[in-house]
């Protein structure tokens, strides 16, 4: 009877490992969304509890209110900032591609106005002349 119990236990462990790995494999494409969902849930849990108390235990209404607050405070601003950042990156790329922006000239100007002590330190650290 003891061998049969050990076999059941090992079979259970193998099946558990297989199911766990399959579950992780299924969730892998959604890792970013799940991660940020957990982060937002942890950050806004005190707010959710406070809203739940203020709404006399009405869980659905409190959850909906907390969701609207999260969308207004976090999600919409992140979308707007990301959109502006992408727009600026595209504009910068077009300027560099069109020859309107030369980063080498900016670097030369920065190096020219640096004090000699900065040049000395940079030469010591980099092992050569930065000019």
Please give a handful of descriptors for the protein shown.
131 residues, mainly alpha
Write a brief caption for the model.
85% of the residues lie in helices and 0% in strands. The chain is an all-alpha fold. The model has no long low-confidence stretch (mean pLDDT 90).
Structure description:
- This protein has 131 residues and is an all-alpha fold.
- It is built from five helices and no strands.
- It has one domain (2-100).
- The chain has helices at 2-27, 31-54, 59-98, 103-113, 116-126.
- α2 crosses α3.
- The longest helix is centred in the middle third of the chain and has 40 residues, at 59-98.
- It is extended and about 80 Å long.
- The model has no long low-confidence stretch (mean pLDDT 90).
Termini gap: 82 Å
For the residues shown, what is the average pLDDT? Answer: 90
Low-confidence stretches: none
Q: How many DSSP-defined strands?
A: 0
- Counting structural domains, the number is 1
Q: List the helices and strands in order.
A: HHHHH
Please tally the helical runs, counting DSSP H or I stretches of 4 or more residues.
5
Q: Which structural class fits the helix and strand makeup? A: mainly alpha
- The fraction of residues assigned to DSSP E strands is under 5%
Q: How would you characterize the largest beta sheet?
A: none
